Amino acid sequence: MRRLVAFGALAVALAACGSPQQAADLSTLSVRPSSPQSSESAPVPPSSAPLTTGQGTTATPVSGRCTAAVLAGSVQPGDAGAGNRYGKLVVTNNGAAPCTINGYSGLQLLDAAGNPLPTDLQRTPDPGPAPVMLVPGTAAAANLHWTVVPTGEEPVDRPCQAEAARAAAIPPDETQPMDVKWGLGPVCAGGKIEISAFYAA
After folding, report:
1. Is residue 107 one of the residues assigned to a domain?
2. Where is the composition biased (Low complexity) (predicted)?
3. Less CB within 10 Å around the terminal CB: N or C of the chain?
4. Please, are residues 137 and 70 in contact by the beta-carbon 8 Å criterion?
5. For residues 102 and 91, what is the distance between their CA atoms, to the nearest angstrom?
6. Which helix (H) or strand (E) holds 16?
7. What is the reported pTM?
8. pLDDT tens track of the chain, all 201 residues?
9. Would you call 194 helix, strand, or coil by DSSP?
10. Contacts from 180-186 at CB under 8 Å and sequence distance 24+?
11. Residue 100 and residue 155 share a domain
């Protein structure tokens, strides 16, 4: 009788160890089962492959994606020269738990009243998509590049486009935007902005 009870307990433990943790986005999180447990030890949740974190270290990923509800966004200016402008879209995890961001942000320039302005967002693989875990308080960034040189029928005696006051930035695989301040001047070439994927900042 004792052998039957022990066998039943072992079967339950092995079944628990073999259940993979569900991920919210299978394209960003690669889950692997944990090592088998002996009959004398309690089962533990499966571990996952380490991801890069906002602090440049590795950690066990969680299932949640970073959403606008937990992210604070800002646009930071970079170098300028020969009509080119550079900047970064920086997002910081202000939530209470880690989250994962992977891919490209959406971005729409807005005027002071919140009306959309011409925006032609173009993705560049510099760098390309890779999952980044943000523990609370850490950040990720995406590179931005645009021109202030009028093109086509854009005027040369005044700003080529209306200057944006703000921008709506949508985290990867999400639909709700973050409101970020722009204040970096007009974007010529019909609002063309090149954007990279997010990387650990």
Report:
1. yes
2. 27-42
3. N
4. no
5. 12
6. helix 2-17
7. 0.69
8. 444 333 344 333 333 334 333 333 333 333 333 333 433 434 434 434 445 555 544 445 445 999 999 999 999 999 888 899 999 999 999 999 999 999 999 999 999 999 999 999 999 999 999 999 999 999 999 999 999 999 999 999 999 999 999 999 999 999 999 999 998 999 999 999 999 999 999
9. strand
10. 180/73, 180/74, 180/75, 180/89, 181/74, 181/75, 182/75, 182/109, 182/110, 183/75, 184/75, 184/77, 184/85, 184/87, 185/85, 185/148, 185/159, 186/148, 186/159, 186/160, 186/161, 186/162
11. yes
- Assign residue 182 a region: left if phi > 0, alpha if psi is -120 to 50, beta otherwise? alpha
Is 40 in the same domain as 87? no
> Do 128 and 176 have their domain in common?
yes
Amino acid identity of residue 58, one-letter, is T
Is residue 55 in a domain?
no
Query: Nearest 5°: CA angle at 86, between 85 and 89?
Result: 135
Same domain, 28 and 81: no
* Domain assignment of residue 80, given as a range: 71-200
In a domain, 59, yes or no: no
Q: Assess whether 151 and 79 both reside in one domain.
A: yes
Q: Do 98 and 180 have their domain in common?
A: yes
DSSP letter for 48, please.
B
Number of compact structural domains in the chain: 2
In a domain? residue 98: yes
* Residue 151 and residue 97 in one domain: yes
